Amino acid sequence: MPFSRGRKPVTSKISKLQSSKSKASENQDEATRVKRSSTPPKGAAKKRTAFLDITNVNGLSFALISFRDICVPYILHGRPNHCLSITSEEQEKELQKREPLADEPRADPLLKDPLPVNLQPPEIPPEFDIDSEHAGDCIFSAGYAKEIFDNIRSREDTFILHDYMATQPFLNENMRAILVDWLVEVQENYELNHETLYLAVKLMDHYLSRMGTNKESLQLVGCAAMLIASKFEERIPPSIDDFLYICDDAYKRSQLITMEASILNVLNFDINIPVPYHFLRRYAKCVGANMETLTLARYFCELSLQDMVFLPVRGSLLASACLLIALVTKDLGGWTPILQFHSSYAVGDLAPVVRKLHHMLSKPSHSKLEAIKSKYSHSVFFEVAKTPNVDLEKLEQFL
């Protein structure tokens, strides 16, 4: 593995994780993975609640107080100084006579009418509506999905990157590509979300664009970025010890914690960076693409993480270009009006990025950068890495 300073190569650690994973599946005990272990590490504090042990239910006694006894005194007098037993007619009379409380908002006499507030989402033409099927599910926020993604797109203006290698005298593009390849292996071995991988690469690039780093500390930057991304995206993130182990103990615990704090301070703790993976799922839904086509687009998108040519490209634009190549490769057509409506990109906007992606896919693979290709050659990912590259002339017909 790259940039390792330990006595043992990092690849040995990766192989150990893979062998332990296979043994776990044979014993039908997948809960023993390092990442998912719920046992606190040695010397860690015991888990506890902030105020009381909520598991000790039998030792607690609760007094049942009626809603009327509490709320009626508050409504009538502003405090529960006594419990009343009144009828609804008496309650209405008391409410009309009472004075407003000190902290109760009063109507502004200068304003005759209340200010208009528009809480309705913008109307979407029926032919472009892709969220109506989830209209009754509050989790999907179907009525505001378009606004949510438009807001994420607007945040991309805050996170525009540039080619920073000219300001890094000790680094080059090949070192960065090897580090991204290693991060893909970490994501695979700890079974992290794909969003975690994309966010980790973004955090690393934003940090390196502002801070100089030597070759010995480059893997530490990537490791700390993956740690931060895991805390942001994962339900159960790997621990610091897990990341130290995957680095073959090349760094100390204090070094990793210090680098984590350095990245957060340099980025001003603004780590909610839009990544192309979010947009790719959204745009694939517009055309009803199946999982194989979506996975092929994800394969192209993940390969682009290693190439600095795509560093300045917005995540939404990159996701659109990857999906277009996948659609053409699978003979599913080109860029449709519904895709243009939801992405706000015309075919002319995609053409330069699509050509760069095709050039990247046409180049021979690097012998040291095999993690992504190996990952997407598995049957779980429909073996999309083995899909023949689409002909450029055929692709140009859709551009």
UniProtKB/TrEMBL annotation:
Top-level division of the source organism's lineage: Eukaryota
Signal sequence range: none
Biased composition (Low complexity): 12-22
Domain Cyclin C-terminal span(s) in chain numbering: 274-390
UniProt xrefs under SMART domains: CYCLIN, Cyclin_C
One of the GO biological process terms: cell division
Biased composition (Basic and acidic residues): 23-33, 93-111
Pfam family for this entry, one: Cyclin_N
A Gene Ontology molecular function term of the record: cyclin-dependent protein serine/threonine kinase regulator activity
Keyword tags: Cell cycle, Cell division, Cyclin
Ranges where the Cyclin-like domain occurs: 181-265, 278-359
Entry-linked PANTHER family: CYCLINS
Protein name (database record): G2/mitotic-specific cyclin-B3
Protein species of origin: Denticeps clupeoides (denticle herring)
Gene: ccnb3
